[in-house]
Structures are given as structure tokens and as C-alpha cells.
């Protein structure tokens, strides 16, 4: 019997090499017949130019131009010269595919023989497969429970590798046939390709029926690899075959489920990444790192991960999302660059991640080709949705998708992209979250930029983010970051991108950028993103200042934020005063009581920081007078805290303490973080800082230190870094020093230094230098004390932060006196006393007088000692007037040293 191949109106008997059209011979050259037969024997598969030339001209060098001539003659003979070919499709630069269905039939009466199926031998299965043992076991188990199992996942994640491992390590007793569908051009060719792979000669136009008939008594595992581009046809074929062949099992790999009856889906996840690894040993616990190291070892002819390389390798694997193909491609680049250079170069991963294995499928040769494959099989609407989703730099919600996508059915488009493994679903929280893998996002972002749609999409994204931040304002104020709605902390990368676009040189939408900046102020502040906040403020204010009246409310808010002390460098104190003065003026013009209060508060803070408490008390009273007009009743409570703090700096410690205790009682039911953004710090923390200081000065050292400890626990619980820094600088460090706890003081100073350095808080970081100088003084290291203290005092003076200047001057005077420079010491301490007289600052007046007395006593003459005693008596009188038992104790020690009996203490305030 002879085999006859039929397609369309044509047939050919290979043994006779004669092409017929409806029974009539069609003239065709021998080379054209060879090309036709080669393509017919591989229907639906792309055959490259090189493969065809090798088949048709096996021992002859032939230019590809000759191939084109013969193919052209063949297509002309078939009448296949239309714009949309029916039989032979050309893939420019690559080769040709026979795209029409092919029926095989045997001439004669005998039935076609049943195919002899060969057991599958896994090809190109790596010697080691990393991190997939549980997956392989799970898929194997699924095959025992169901007859159709699909391994689904994004391109390059290792679906085919897992399928091969399942076969190699599984217990399937029947025959196994593997069919690679990646080169099948259209879905209608699927039955033909399957029949060809099974060796089935179809006698009818219904190839599926013939396949089912042949498989009806076969115990067969059919592996269909790379189904995603013909998924609908595969689903129908699978249902038809499984219904007719009871012993048939099908294992499919696809970027999306088949959605066929009886299907079991196993979603293949990226390789596990290190949570945090600083050593090679820790990094190698991750399958992603194991794969990278194994491929690097193969590429370089020997490689072992070192502690030095560990961080870069972890970064590489993390940025590549644990995608096996991308990691393999990255390791393959090590022959041309080092680990660190490879890590740095991944910002352009599509250029870098090329040159895969020569034997790999074309779509696995480069990362871009892999993503091209996924992208090109999407519908135009799905392609557009994927491009638009690239503006999300982290997790996003369904509501966000609805606001940003331009399609009419955003939920359906999102679901389709999830199904195709291009969007990852996370259901750990109350609301489902989605995200793009970084490589997918970068690819889609390139497509978005090239499409010209970027401005419109970024505008929608920026508008959504602005509205979302505004609507969640109270949540941002009141809740700790880990409880923020919609995971706003994770929106920071997207916020950065939106602001860069809005204010960028391409001219995005500066007014939208202004409103987004205003909406993001609480987020910037609570996450301590001060440098980024300042940059955005500068852009926004510059834009509005050039357009008076455009948006005065936003301009007021921006100037108010610009006045935050944390945003000012230590050499620009006037900037904050000017910003708040401007904000206050605009607030008065707009009748905005809230921002008038903010501005008064900020100007009060500036006066207190400049050690001008007498003027500060005036502003505190103005705040108290305006507060009843506020829509927030707690503003009056804040006013009481401001007044109490000022009273402390004025030396009225008992009044301050009682006022603050009453204030905290009234404030007990106010959301804990509501005012931490409006007034920079958590109000409970700032109040308790002053209470701790007052307790120490009033003589209850133990209670003061306990207050510091409890407040630190509270500040850490609410996660407000600026309040922690404030507590360290104004209470923990100085009170440890005053209590003589040098070890605890040193620890607090280190913590302050580390904490403020990480937050770029120059002023408080400089305070740490001043406190450290006092430790040097106690060790008798006078020169080192001055070397540390004087530059710090200069910085604070230029910054207008003189809150501790007089106290630091007392340290400076003692160091100078220790070096024998008594005149200079007197000048320094007298300057501090003069400032107190002029400004009303009195909180440490007894201590200043005590230091003056001890500097005076250095003269050792009877006159000097008498003068020192007199000054000490004045110091003790000042301490008693202020109820400052803590200061009085120190004075009594010095009186006793001069030979005076210390009088009974005035008593500690409880």
C-alpha cells in the first residue's frame, strides 16, 4: 500500500512524487517536490531555511536565494500567492511552515496499522533540578488523581523541566509521548501535529476521531508542551480524546490553564529567594542562588560562592524574580563580566540577558524573546492592559486597576492576565493584591513608552494615587505603617515614578504633581523620606510661585511642609521661618484656621529651639487663643502642651509637669498619630520628654529614668522614628549624663547617632557630638572634649538650634578650666548667663551658676574661694526658687567640697 497525503484540493503520493489537484497532475520541479514533502512531513512546525537546505541539498552548498526561488515556484503551483497564504507561511528571516491540515491515508483495503509507541526518554534534563522536589511530587500525585494535569506559569520559569522530571521520576506504567507545540503556527493544525507525532495515518477528514480510535485501548501519557498560543484548541482536543480513550492521561505545560473539563492545575512559582543573606552559606539555602552558582560553575569552568559575592548574587536572583531561565542567562554572562558588574548591569536586563544555549528553543535564547512570546499571543486589549499595569511598581489592588486601565472591562482583563501568568495574585491579606514580576514590568514598561500612551496612563495613575492618599489621610495619621490600608508604604516606588514624570523634563503634568505631592506629605513624613520630600516640595513650590492664584491652598500646604525642621540643613535656619511665615500669611488670607495654628506652632518651635522661651510663651498663648476656633477640639490640648514645655524652659518645672499630666489625661482618647504629622512628633512622646526632664530637675531621678524607658517602648511600638530621635536627644542622653550613668549615656549616644544618621537628621546627630564631649570631660580628656564640642556648637548655632547651647557652654567652660584657661572659661559661662537673662531661659540656671563657681574656685586664693562660695549660694537659692532639687544636689556636693555644710534640700516634687 502507498501512503497518500491530502491537503485542500491537492494530494501527493510520496513514493510517486506526483502532485495532483483534484486528480489532475500539477507540473512541479524535483527540488520543489522535495521541499513540499519535507514540509508536509512536519505540518505546523517552523522549519528554518538551514534545515530545508540541508534536507533538499544535503551535500551541496546552496545560497538561501535558491531556496526562495524554489519556494516561490512551489507556492505559485499551489496557487498560494495571496496576501494570507493557505498552505505555506513564511516567517521572515527564519523559515517556512506548512499551515494547512494534512490528512494521511493508505491506498488499498487493508486498515492502517496501529502505531507502535516508544517510551519517552527525557531530553536535556539537567543533572540537578533546584527547589522543585515538592513540585515534582505534587504534579506526580495529581496525575494519579486526574487524567488531565496542567503545569502553568510564566515563561522561563521551568515548566518543561518540571514536566520532564515528573516523567523521569514518576511511576507511569504506560507509554509516554512528548509533543512540543511551540512551533505550531495555528490551532487548526494541532490535531495534525498530534496525529503525526503518534504515527497515525488518518483516513478521514475528522483527524481527532481517528486519533481517539487509535488510542482507545492504549495506556498512554501524552505530554503537550507549550500550549499557551493554541490553548483553546488543545482544551477541545484534550476533552475529546479523554472522553474516548479511558486509559489516556495528558500532562500539559502552558502559561495559562486550559480550562478544560476535569483539568487539575499546578501553578509553578518562582524559585525561592533568600529572605536576607549576608554570607555565602546563608545564600546557598536558596534554590535560586543554587541554580545561579551551578550555572556559573559550568560557565566559568569552576566557581564557588564567596561571602564577598553573596550580596550581589542575592541581588541578581532577587531582581530576576527567581525565574530559572533569567538566572541561567545571567550566569551565562559571567564569561564577559564579574558578579558585581553583572548586578549593576541588570537595569537593562533585556540587553544583558542574551546568549542562551544554542540548542534552546528560540524563545529561550534571550529574556526578551521569552517575554515577546508571551506578549504576542495576547489579544490587543490584553496587550494594552499589560502595558498600562507596568506603571504599578509594587502590589496593587483591584480598585487601583479599575482606575488606571483604559479598557471597558478591567476586571476581565486582569483575570485574563492572571490566567496567562503575567500577573501574580497574592491573597495573604484581607484584600487580594496583584503584582507584576519585575522582568515583566520592565518589558511592559518599554512597550508602554514605545506606544506613546505613557502620558495618559501616568496621568490616570497619578490621579488615582493622589485620591487614594487623600482618602486614606486619617489612616495614614492614625495607624502604624504595617496596618496602613492598601499597603501605602509599598506605593512609594510608584509615587517616585509619578513625581518624576509629573515634574520631569518631558513636561508631564506639573499641576497634577503638585497635588500628588500635597497628598503624599503624610506618607513622606511617616516613612522619614525627607530628601525625596524636599525635592518634590521644591518642584511644586517653584511651579506655583510662578503662577500666583493658581492653587493657593496647595501652596499653603507646601510651604507648611517646607518649614518642617527635619527638612532643613543645619546651615539654613532662616528658610524654615520664612516658609512658615509665608504659610501663615496664606492661611490668614484663606481663613484656614488649621494652617494658621500649624504656622504658629512652627514659629513657636523655632523660638524654643533658639532658646527664646520668653517670646515663645507669647506665641503659645496666641495658639491657645486661636485653638477654640479649630474644627479639631484637641488643638486646645496641644496648646496646653506648648505652654507647659515653654514653662519648663523658663524654669517653672512644677507648673510644667502638672500642666502636662493634665494634658495627657485629656489627650488619652485622641488617635495616637493624628498630630504626629501635623506637628511633626507624636504628642504623647513630646509631652513625656518634658515630664521626664521636669522629674529629674524636681529631684525624682528614678521616676525620670523610668519615664524615659516607658516612653521609648511606646515610641517604638508606634514606629515613629522622629519621635524616637527626639526622645533620645532631649531626654535619654542628657538625663543619663546628669544621673551619672556614663555607660547608659554612651549607649544612648550611639543609638542617637546611628538613628539620626540613617534618617539624615543633621541637628540631632550634632547633639550626639555635644553629649559625647561631656563623656570626654568626665574622663579628663579636655582637649578631646573641646575638639568634639566646639564644631558641634558652631553647627547648631548656624542652624538656629540653641536649645542646649547654654548647657553645652557649661561643658566647654569646665574643659577650658581643666586646661588652665580660666579667663576663657569665665567668658564662656558669663555669655551663657547673659543669654539667660535676655531670653528668659532658666531651666539650667542653677547648673550654670554652679559651673561658674567651680571655675572661680580654680584660683585657689581665699578671695576666689569666698567668691565661689557666694556664687554657689546664689545657685542654691535659684534652685530652691525653681524647686530644682536635682540641681540643688549637685550644688551641695560642691559646697561640701569647699568646706561648707550643705543645707537641707528643699524636697523632691513627687
Automatic annotation (TrEMBL):
Residues 2-100 form the OmpR/PhoB-type domain. The lineage of its organism: Bacteria, Pseudomonadati, Pseudomonadota, Alphaproteobacteria, Hyphomicrobiales. It holds the Pfam family nSTAND1. Residues 2-100 bind DNA. PANTHER family: HTH-TYPE TRANSCRIPTIONAL REGULATOR RV0890C-RELATED, REGULATOR-RELATED. InterPro entries: nSTAND1 (IPR049052), OmpR/PhoB-type_DNA-bd (IPR001867), P-loop_NTPase (IPR027417), Sig_transdc_resp-reg_C-effctor (IPR016032), WH-like_DNA-bd_sf (IPR036388). Keywords: DNA-binding. This is ATPase.
Amino acid at each position: 500500500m502507498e501512503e497518500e497525503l491530502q491537503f485542500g484540493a491537492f494530494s501527493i503520493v510520496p513514493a510517486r512524487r506526483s502532485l495532483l489537484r483534484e486528480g489532475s497532475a500539477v507540473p512541479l520541479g524535483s527540488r520543489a517536490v522535495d521541499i513540499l514533502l519535507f514540509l508536509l512531513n512536519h505540518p505546523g512546525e517552523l522549519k528554518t531555511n538551514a534545515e530545508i537546505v540541508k534536507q533538499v541539498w544535503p551535500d551541496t552548498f546552496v545560497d538561501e536565494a535558491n531556496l526562495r526561488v524554489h519556494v516561490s515556484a512551489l507556492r505559485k503551483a499551489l496557487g498560494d500567492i495571496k496576501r494570507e497564504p493557505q498552505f505555506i507561511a513564511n516567517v521572515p528571516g527564519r523559515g517556512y511552515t506548512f499551515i494547512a491540515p494534512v490528512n494521511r491515508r493508505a491506498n488499498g483495503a487493508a486498515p492502517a496499522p496501529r502505531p507502535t509507541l516508544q517510551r519517552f526518554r527525557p531530553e536535556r534534563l539537567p543533572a540537578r533540578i533546584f527547589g522543585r522536589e515538592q513540585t515534582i511530587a505534587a504534579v506526580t500525585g495529581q496525575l494519579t488523581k486526574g487524567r488531565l494535569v496542567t503545569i502553568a506559569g510564566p515563561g522561563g520559569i521551568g515548566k518543561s523541566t518540571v514536566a520532564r522530571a515528573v516523567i523521569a521520576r514518576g511511576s507511569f506504567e504506560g507509554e509516554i509521548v512528548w509533543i512540543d507545540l511551540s512551533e505550531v503556527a495555528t490551532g487548526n493544525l494541532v490535531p495534525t501535529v498530534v496525529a503525526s507525532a503518534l504515527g497515525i495515518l488518518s483516513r478521514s477528514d475528522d483527524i481527532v476521531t481517528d486519533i481517539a480510535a487509535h488510542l482507545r485501548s492504549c495506556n498512554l501519557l501524552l505530554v503537550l508542551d507549550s500550549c499557551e498560543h493554541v490553548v483553546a484548541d488543545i482544551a477541545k482536543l484534550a476533552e475529546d480524546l479523554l472522553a474516548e480513550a479511558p486509559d489516556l492521561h495528558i500532562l500539559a505545560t502552558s502559561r495559562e490553564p486550559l480550562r478544560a473539563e476535569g483539568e487539575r492545575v499546578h501553578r509553578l512559582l518562582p524559585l525561592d529567594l533568600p529572605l536576607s543573606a549576608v554570607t555565602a552559606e546563608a545564600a546557598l539555602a536558596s534554590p535560586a542562588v543554587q541554580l545561579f552558582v551551578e550555572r556559573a560553575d559550568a560557565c566559568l569552568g569552576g566557581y564557588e560562592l564567596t561571602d564577598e559575592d553573596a550580596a550581589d548574587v542575592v541581588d541578581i536572583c532577587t531582581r530576576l524574580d527567581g525565574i530559572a531561565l533569567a538566572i541561567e542567562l545571567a550566569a551565562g554572562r559571567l564569561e564577559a563580566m564579574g558578579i558585581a558588574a553583572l548586578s549593576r548591569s541588570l537595569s537593562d536586563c533585556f540587553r544583558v540577558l542574551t546568549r542562551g544555549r544554542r540548542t534552546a528553543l528560540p524563545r529561550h535564547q534571550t529574556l526578551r524573546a521569552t517575554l515577546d512570546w508571551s506578549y504576542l499571543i495576547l489579544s490587543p486589549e490584553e496587550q494594552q492592559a499589560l502595558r498600562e499595569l507596568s506603571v504599578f511598581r509594587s502590589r496593587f489592588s483591584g480598585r487601583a486597576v479599575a482606575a488606571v486601565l483604559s479598557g471597558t472591562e478591567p476586571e476581565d482583563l486582569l483575570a485574563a492576565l492572571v490566567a496567562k501568568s503575567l500577573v501574580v495574585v497574592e491573597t495573604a491579606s484581607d484584600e487580594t493584591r496583584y503584582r507584576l514580576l519585575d522582568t515583566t514590568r520592565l518589558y511592559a514598561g518599554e512597550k508602554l513608552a514605545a506606544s506613546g500612551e505613557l502620558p495618559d496612563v501616568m496621568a490616570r495613575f497619578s490621579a488615582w494615587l493622589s485620591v487614594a492618599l487623600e482618602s486614606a489621610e486619617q489612616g495614614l495619621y492614625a495607624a502604624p505603617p504595617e496596618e496602613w490600608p492598601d499597603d501605602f508604604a509599598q506605593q512609594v516606588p510608584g509615587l517616585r515614578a509619578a513625581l518624576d514624570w509629573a515634574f520631569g523634563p518631558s513636561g508631564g503634568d506639573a499641576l497634577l504633581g503638585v497635588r500628588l505631592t500635597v497628598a503624599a506629605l503624610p506618607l513622606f513624613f511617616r516613612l522619614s523620606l525627607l530628601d525625596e520630600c524636599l525635592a518634590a516640595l521644591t518642584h511644586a513650590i517653584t511651579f506655583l510661585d510662578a503662577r500666583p492664584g493658581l492653587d493657593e491652598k496647595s501652596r499653603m500646604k507646601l510651604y507648611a511642609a517646607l518649614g518642617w525642621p527635619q527638612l532643613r540643613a543645619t546651615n539654613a535656619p532662616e528658610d524654615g521661618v520664612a516658609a512658615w511665615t509665608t504659610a501663615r500669611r496664606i492661611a490668614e488670607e484663606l481663613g484656614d484656621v488649621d494652617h494658621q495654628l500649624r504656622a504658629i506652632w512652627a514659629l513657636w518651635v523655632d523660638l524654643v529651639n533658639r532658646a527664646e522661651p520668653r517670646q515663645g510663651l507669647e506665641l503659645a498663648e496666641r495658639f491657645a487663643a486661636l485653638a477654640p476656633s479649630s474644627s479639631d477640639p484637641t488643638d486646645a490640648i496641644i496648646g496646653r502642651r506648648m505652654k507647659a514645655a515653654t514653662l519648663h524652659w523658663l524654669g517653672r518645672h512644677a507648673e510644667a509637669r502638672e500642666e502636662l499630666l493634665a494634658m495627657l489625661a485629656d489627650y488619652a482618647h485622641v488617635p495616637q498619630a493624628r498630630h504626629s504629622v501635623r506637628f511633626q512628633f507624636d504628642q504623647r512622646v513630646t509631652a513625656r520628654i518634658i515630664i521626664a526632664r521636669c522629674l529629674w530637675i524636681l529631684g525624682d531621678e528614678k521616676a525620670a529614668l523610668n519615664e524615659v524607658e516607658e516612653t521609648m517602648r511606646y515610641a517604638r511600638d508606634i514606629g515613629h522614628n522622629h519621635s524616637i530621635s527626639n526622645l533620645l536627644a532631649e531626654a535619654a542622653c542628657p538625663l543619663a549624663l546628669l544621673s551619672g550613668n556614663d555607660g547608659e549615656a554612651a549607649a544612648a549616644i550611639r543609638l542617637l547617632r546611628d538613628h539620626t544618621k540613617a534618617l539624615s537628621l543633621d541637628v540631632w546627630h550634632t547633639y550626639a557630638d555635644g553629649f559625647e564631649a561631656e563623656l570626654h570631660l568626665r574622663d579628663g580628656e579636655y582637649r578631646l572634649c573641646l575638639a568634639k564640642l566646639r564644631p558641634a556648637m558652631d553647627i547648631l548655632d548656624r542652624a538656629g538650634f540653641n536649645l542646649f547651647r547654654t548647657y553645652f557652654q557649661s561643658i566647654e567652660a569646665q574643659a577650658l578650666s581643666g586646661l588652665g584657661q580660666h579667663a576663657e572659661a569665665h567668658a564662656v559661662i558669663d555669655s551663657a548667663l547673659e543669654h539667660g537673662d535676655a531670653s528668659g531661659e532658666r531651666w539650667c540656671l542653677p547648673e550654670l551658676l554652679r559651673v561658674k563657681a567651680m571655675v572661680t574656685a580654680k584660683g585657689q586664693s581665699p578671695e576666689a574661694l569666698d567668691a565661689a562660695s557666694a556664687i554657689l549660694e546664689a545657685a542654691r537659692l535659684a534652685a530652691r526658687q525653681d524647686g530644682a532639687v536635682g540641681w540643688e544636689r549637685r550644688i551641695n556636693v560642691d559646697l561640701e567640697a569647699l568646706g561648707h555644710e550643705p543645707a537641707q534640700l528643699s524636697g523632691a516634687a513627687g
